[in-house]
Amino acid sequence: MSIDLTETSITEAVRKTFDGVENERVKELFVCLVQHVHDFAREVRLTGDEWFEALDFLKRVGDVTTPDRQEFVLLSDILGLSVLVDLINHEDGSSTTDSTLLGPFYVEGRPTAENGSDISGEVEGTPLFFSGTVLDVDGHPVAGAQVDTWHSDGNGFYDVQMPEKLHHRLAMRALMATDDKGRFWYRSVAPRYYPVPTDGPCGEILRVANRSAMRPEHLHFRFHAEGFEPLITMLFRSDDPYLERDAVFGAKRSLVVDFVQHDPGETAPDGTHLDEPFQTVEWTFVLARGKS
Ligand code: BEZ
Ligand code: FE
């Protein structure tokens, strides 16, 4: 019955409307969502003004969302939901590389690059040489894996955050492939810690909670390989001041790496001699075998 509903009976009435949903999982998700959202409203004695403010907030999240500005993803990130979903779905303590969140700066239209290329897109900064190896759990190389990498510049800005300066070019990101030994390597510029975008509605939440907006310095990676589970992860700089207080809860000790500092004149991994300081980072990623 859905007439003369009370504060308590309305939940059952709404839940029942999902009885006919054929897909059991979809049904479970809606029924549970309704239960929790209703319980939340009852528990906090939600007022009409507060609910309209919340809906207006979500509308504003939608208003600033574009293909290059994912404010809904950011909302999920700052509320810890993105990392929670990742933790629920990835076993702890396995021998494979830990995953972490994707973040809002991954973009589909990234350029492809050959191993050894400079992917900085002519952005200025301290040269960084990254060398990665992709292995399976038995230590065998994963050849032909698709590797996406992306990161900020030395001031903590991604290419999509400075379209005018870069004349709408993408930079500091590429889609690469591992060689027959599972290796991939590139030159770019060293990234920097940075604040998550605070000029949109999510910034209001951070300010009201007096929270730091900073993310520790990191490089992003996303792997796809035939027969393996996809992996989305990051590597964090070991001496970063924000490592223990990531605004989006994504930092993990298992993903901390030394960004090795080199003096001018030392030989870079590509065999060249640079007349400026540069950094090198090496890492081995281990992919889980596909379940399907
Ligand atoms: C990022 O690492 O790119 C990121 C992740 C979450 C929120 C903002 C940025
Ligand atoms: Fe990032």
Automatic annotation (TrEMBL):
Keyword DNA repair listed: no
Keyword tags: Dioxygenase, Iron, Metal-binding, Oxidoreductase
Domain Intradiol ring-cleavage dioxygenases: 103-287
Example of a GO MF term: dioxygenase activity
Coiled coil: none
Entry superkingdom: Bacteria
Gene3D superfamilies according to UniProt: Aromatic compound dioxygenase
Cofactor(s) demanded: Fe(3+)
The protein, known as: Dioxygenase
Organism of origin: Nonomuraea purpurea
